[in-house]
Structure formats: structure tokens, C-alpha cells
Amino acid sequence: MSTDDDASTARTDHHRALVRHFADLRDGTHGHDPASPQRTRAGKEQLFRTAVDLLDPYARQALAEIDAELLLGTGEITATGVRPAPAGGLVAHWELGWPEQRTTALDPIRLTAFYGAGFHHPHLQGGTVGQWPLNIFTPRDAAAELPVLRAIAAADLHNLVFRRDHRIIPATTRGAAQGTAQDATSDATRGAS
């Protein structure tokens, strides 16, 4: 049985990020320790730039994991850094493209950090999936977003398959038979231990 104390100590880093997000909305600010809460657009943009720098290795990791496991190392990761967004505000993209995706004219898997012109604070999103709060002020905050980045990238890849078909994923074409046999062997080995 769980108590209120257990629930508060069990709060995950990601849930703490959501609480920071809701507190920002409540207080009209953006920023938490060690960053000073900011009320001005310029202050919030500086926090966004720092967040993108902190998030960069984790965004690359999430995409590299998909490249290694599903694209069989055929992908190429690119990153834009922070730049002006076409509709105003700031944006940063991390993308994973691969040969099968390019030949079918699909967009790459995309992770996006953006701070829209009319937004109170920044968010994360995928190329084909929704938005998540972006409340990153420390390296620990950035590391805590790795599961979210993985989920965005995986959902984006899933949606790209629906736009075309499973053949855009090298692991389902070139490595399918070998991968299935290896998976079955690994499952049997795990069950025996």
C-alpha cells in the first residue's frame, strides 16, 4: 500500500519536470534552480539555448539507438542548433535520415525543441507526434528526458512506417530472419537462467 510520503519520494525526474512546467504556467515564469526564473522573452530565450545545449547528447543518443538497432547503422544524424523558427521564435532540430527513407521521399525522424513566438515556454516534439514540456536547467534534467526522447523518436519512426510501409526499416528487410532467430535464442537463454 502506498502513502502520500511514498508517492512524493517516488516522484520521477520526468514528473518533477511536469511539476516545474505547471508551476511556470501558474507563476508566469520559466526557470528553476540553478537557473533564475525568467519573465522576459529574452531571459526565456537564453534558458532555451542552454536547454538545447544540455539536451543535445541525449537527443543524439536516442536517435543513435534507433540507427544501431533498427536502421542497422545506415542512418545519418544531423543537428541544426538553435535558429530562428519560420513562424517566429526559436527552434532546434535533430534528425535521423537513412537511404530507404530518402528514396521514398519521407521526412527523417525528427526531434524538435522549440520556443514559439506566442508560447509561454519551450516544448519538445517529434516530426509526426505531439508536444512535451521542455523544462531543462541542469545536466540531470536533460538526462531525465532521454526516455521521452526515445519515445518521441520511436513514435515518429512508427508514423513514418504507416506513411509508407515496413520496408523502410532495414532491420525488417535485411536483418529480419537473422534478428528473429537471435531474438528467439536470447529469449530462450533468459528463460533458462
Describe this structure in words.
Helices cover 52% and strands 16% of the residues. The chain is α+β, with helices and mostly antiparallel strands and 193 residues long. It has one domain (12-175). Strands 1, 2, 3, 4, 5 and 6 form a 6-stranded antiparallel β-sheet that branches. Helix 3 crosses helix 6. It is elongated. Mean pLDDT is 85; it is low at 1-10 and 177-193.
Structural class: alpha+beta
Number of helices: 8
The count of strands amounts to: 6
What is the string of helix and strand elements? Answer: HHHEEEHEEEHHHH
Strand residue content? 15-25%
Q: What is the average of the pLDDT values?
A: 85
Helix content: 40-55%
What's the structural domain tally?
Answer: 1
Largest sheet: 6 strands, antiparallel
Helix-strand layout with pairing:
Elements: H1 4-9, H2 13-27, H3 41-69, E1 76-79, E2 83-84, E3 89-97, H4 99-103, E4 109-116, E5 123-126, E6 131-133, H5 139-144, H6 146-163, H7 170-173, H8 176-192
What does this entry show, briefly?
This protein has helices at residues 4-9, 13-27, 41-69, 99-103, 139-144, 146-163, 170-173, 176-192; strands spanning 76-79, 83-84, 89-97, 109-116, 123-126, 131-133.
Search tags:
single chain; alpha+beta; six-stranded antiparallel sheet; elongated
